[in-house]
Write a structure and sequence with these properties.
Layout: E1 7-12, H1 26-43, E2 46-51, H2 68-92, E3 99-102, E4 111-112, H3 115-123, E5 128-131, H4 141-151, E6 156-161, E7 182-184, H5 185-190, H6 198-207, E8 211-215, H7 222-226, E9 233-237
Parallel strand pairs: 1-2, 1-6, 2-5, 3-4, 3-5, 6-8, 7-9
Antiparallel strand pairs: 8-9
């Protein structure tokens, strides 16, 4: 499969942009930007990036008294803040034609997400950052990355996580948890493994797009993954 991967999409958790008590660390945006540029320069892959907003605000973590849809919109705006700052870091580090596209229209500083336009940018080897989730409440960034993977005809989804793959149980609580090298969608569902929210995972199973789950700290190792070495995480496929 490795040789056939020409276009990929990666979900980057917002927590990656946080350092200590600074939720918007310029140092962290720089580090992520340089790692992304290393991936594209070494592999030549067309890459779309979906950013989360957990370093700023998560709608699902809002006080239960807060209207859920309003909280989700606030979370979407948090992802757009990360998108703006990641684009700035990428352009400053050499990727001057990086495009930020959003599901929520903020035309003064981002392009509206249009499927064919995003494909055009990728075909012209521009990095595409997609922020704002799906632009609708009650859908996670997991659902967004799967939807965009389908629309942009991506060959694989990279899910950057806080653990190095998919385990039989929570490795943070169970020292005997087993990490899977590969697993099928059916096995993951049968074992009730928490990889993505169920809506997103069902969408991924239906589309047949493989998912590679890895530790976000190993972002700079994706070139070896694209050569076929999946040892740093878990590959989920049909």
């Amino acid at each position: 499969m490795a040789g056939s991967i020409k276009r990929a999409i990666i979900k980057i958790t917002g927590e990656l942009f946080q350092k200590d008590n600074d939720p918007l660390s310029s140092e962290r945006y720089d580090i992520v930007a340089r790692k992304i540029l290393q991936i594209t320069s070494v592999t030549g892959i067309q890459l779309a990036i979906v950013v989360g907003g957990g370093n700023i605000f998560r709608g699902r973590n809002a006080n239960p008294e807060v209207d859920r849809s309003e909280a989700d919109f606030a979370g979407m705006l948090a992802t757009i803040m990360n998108g703006v700052l990641l684009r700035e870091a990428l352009t400053r580090n050499g990727a001057e034609d990086t495009r930020l596209m959003t599901a929520i229209h903020v035309q003064d500083f981002a392009e509206p997400y249009i499927k064919l336009k995003a494909r055009h940018h990728l075909e012209n080897n521009r990095l595409v950052i997609i922020a704002g989730g799906l632009g609708k409440p009650f859908f996670s960034t997991d659902s967004a990355v799967v939807q965009y993977a389908k629309e942009l005809l991506c060959d694989i989804i990279f899910k950057a996580s806080t653990v190095d793959g998919v385990y039989s149980s929570d490795p943070k609580n169970d020292p005997d948890a087993k990490r899977y090298k590969t697993i099928s969608y059916g096995q993951a569902i049968a074992k009730r493994l928490k990889i993505m929210d169920q809506t997103a995972f069902s969408m991924c199973e239906e589309s047949g797009i493989p998912i590679f789950v890895f530790n976000v700290e190993n972002l700079d190792k994706l070139p070896t993954v694209l050569k076929g070495d999946y040892s740093i995480g878990t590959l989920i496929k049909g």
